[in-house]
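cron nightly-structures :: item 1 of 1
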Amino acid sequence: MRTFQELLAFLGESDNPGYHELAIPKGEVGELTKVLEEALEAMDCERQGAPLMALVELSDLIGAVSHYLEKHHPTISLADLERFSEITKRAFTSGRRS
């Protein structure tokens, strides 16, 4: 796939649309497949022009990441990821990575 639009086209339309028009595969809670599912659902919401629903999916995405951490990295928290994100932001803003 070269673009997100190509990825969304690859997924195709759902045979039985509910909230989502795309045929998004279900992921497994605690696995990266669930993180991907929630990200794809957020993209589908954006594609539908439903920003509030996209924000709900982003909330679900945070939950999926939290479950992934609990299962695979139990000593790491969302707060740890957020702290590192702030450090990365600082490095990119300053232009210094060392």
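cron nightly-structures :: done
The helical segments are 4-11, 32-47, 51-72, 78-94.
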